[in-house]
């Protein structure tokens, strides 16, 4: 399961039952949500779709093999319940009636909801082909990314995009964005950002992480942010979501009529145009084309790869590939050697900027850049909040075809070293503790240490300097033990020197782990 | 090997072979008409396609004396192409393309009476030919899939009785499928158990099922035949208690319980013959049977006159 599915899931699971009941009124939404489920969740729905009576919980358990199967069933049921597709009543599982009806409609093509997009009745005089749409989508989307990394390629994105970038905390207008953007009216913020000079809105830690993700995750991250914003803009959440899911069911290269859309959705169309998710020839045109970004929304396949399923898609993928060559390969251009050298066959300022996040770039040629991964370059990325895992995923995802012949794709030494550099950064870990010092006698120190280690509360100790570090949990017990020692000593020993014991100096030392 | 390599995210390729033998579907005792059954099957196809965005489907009609691809249409317009059917906002486009192709394809096949029906073809469909087509299609699909993640399987929906003349080609298909790790699921919608196909499911680790009530076809399809290879690891699915392993003899295509087997090429014969009709091995002995003299005389008289090639090759169709 890819990341975007997880993120959209998390979002959906926060919605109340009423919202779901409205969402499920559209077969397209039912289908899209169905596709987000784990395989066994899908199977449970399919198995019970044409069973008219509720299914006893014990009966469903019999469908699954022991242990492994039942575990999967539990997982799947949890998801289904969270999405309000199934509910458990008196030992029976019952399927949501709306979902049941509309999902059956989706499978049989019944009903009259028109949720799969109304095609235009007349052919378009200015028909555009798939290659054009791909080009358009890539251009629009990359413009946003370019803006984020601060390259001067292309024109700056429109207000809506800027607003969203600020809102989602991917970029900041110089000051602390989270506190500011919320308090400020969205429009104000956008205009403020637009007024400011190019370089001024700065990319945040979150933004860097965003750049390293695959495009589908990026699009969903954007759309989810849009959903969050929709509530504050008084847009109907259900209509927005329905439209997103509808887009996912449309077919690339076809034009659809925007006449059946609600006012909210028409407004939405305008915004999505800016992200390159849909194409409209001119504002207010009665037809729109979904681009590849839209049609793969619910599929989970890498967007710009094209899949190898059939001839049209192959042709389309070839077209995309051609498009990519023009503006720098989007996929498979990195060669990483065991000596930490990295060669990237790209001339896209965007890709170079992304690489520059964690690679020490050295030379630049017309069609390629070379660099080397060093401790410093990785640490620089780590301080920006990028994780080693993200770097490795990015490198794997964009590995050159030559690299893919090997398993594992990336040289192990480099991968391990990147991880080690990350761990290195996490050497220090603050722990609240109590330091016991100034033990008068060695035997006092030893008995205290023994007592404390029996309790398992010793963090660190030093025999020579008679120091013990005790966790906060153990402080009370050890403290009273030490107090007892002092009292006993006072009673016993006149001739011996008074053991002075200082304790209870609370502070936060750094412990080597 | 299977469990470790099957990934949750692998797309599935399902090849459905539909038996449209009109002799059986139009039989007065048929519990279900072809059109009704087709509604169920179409919903099932959609359910398969709904499962994943990249799930793929191929449909082959197995008619009397012919078998034909219904979807994807090999020479027709490219599936999913823009010049497709008229769009309907109530239906998911992918589903609609498939359903239209299948329905119109079957209608065309049934309207077109086959003039050249051979005598032995009557009464049963070309299941073997359809299986071969399906296997070839899968082979092609696997070859063109660079990632090598597609999980293929075949589902045979049949109503016809076994045709013993099909035995050798069917067995060849079964072994090819077994070798290529392609499970063959079989749903015998009504009638007697299909012996050969039962063996097919058994050998390829597919599912064989004969529903008790064919009118609930969709539920059976959804419940037992929809789970993909990944889900099957976790589900209890209908199994076979008893498999009929009877074979058909190579000489007269009779289904036999006990027969004679050539010790060199393992061809099966219903009666003793001194020369194997397949590999031409000469047997210089008489079988040890009380009535050896009588049998020997008979074998000499009815020496298999029509040797059939039985090298393990899928039959061309």
TrEMBL record, chain A:
Q: Which UniProt keywords apply?
A: DNA damage, DNA repair, Nucleus, Transcription, Transcription regulation
MF terms from GO for this chain are:
ATPase activator activity; double-stranded DNA binding; RNA polymerase II general transcription initiation factor activity
> Which GO biological process categories is it annotated with?
nucleotide-excision repair; transcription initiation at RNA polymerase II promoter
Cite a GO CC annotation: transcription factor TFIIH holo complex
| Principal subcellular localization | nucleus
* Stated role: Component of the general transcription and DNA repair factor IIH (TFIIH) core complex, which is involved in general and transcription-coupled nucleotide excision repair (NER) of damaged DNA and, when complexed to TFIIK, in RNA transcription by RNA polymerase II. In NER, TFIIH acts by opening DNA around the lesion to allow the excision of the damaged oligonucleotide and its replacement by a new DNA fragment. In transcription, TFIIH has an essential role in transcription initiation.
| Similarity comment text for this entry | Belongs to the TFB2 family.
Protein's UniProt name: RNA polymerase II transcription factor B subunit 2
Q: What is the organism of origin for this protein?
A: Lobosporangium transversale
Automatic annotation (TrEMBL), chain B:
The question of whether Metal-binding is a record keyword is answered with yes
**Where do the segments described as Disordered lie?**
296-317
- Which residue windows does the record flag with biased composition (Pro residues)? 306-317
Q: Name one GO biological process term.
A: nucleotide-excision repair
Query: Out of the domains of life, which is the source?
Result: Eukaryota
One cellular component term (GO) for this entry is: nucleotide-excision repair factor 3 complex
The cross-references to InterPro entries, in alphabetical order and at most eight, read: TFIIH_Tfb4/GTF2H3, vWFA_dom_sf
Role description: Component of the general transcription and DNA repair factor IIH (TFIIH) core complex, which is involved in general and transcription-coupled nucleotide excision repair (NER) of damaged DNA and, when complexed to TFIIK, in RNA transcription by RNA polymerase II. In NER, TFIIH acts by opening DNA around the lesion to allow the excision of the damaged oligonucleotide and its replacement by a new DNA fragment. In transcription, TFIIH has an essential role in transcription initiation.
Q: How does it assemble?
A: Component of the 7-subunit TFIIH core complex composed of XPB/SSL2, XPD/RAD3, SSL1, TFB1, TFB2, TFB4 and TFB5, which is active in NER. The core complex associates with the 3-subunit CTD-kinase module TFIIK composed of CCL1, KIN28 and TFB3 to form the 10-subunit holoenzyme (holo-TFIIH) active in transcription.
Q: Which family does it belong to?
A: Belongs to the TFB4 family.
**Identification of the protein by name:** General transcription and DNA repair factor IIH subunit TFB4
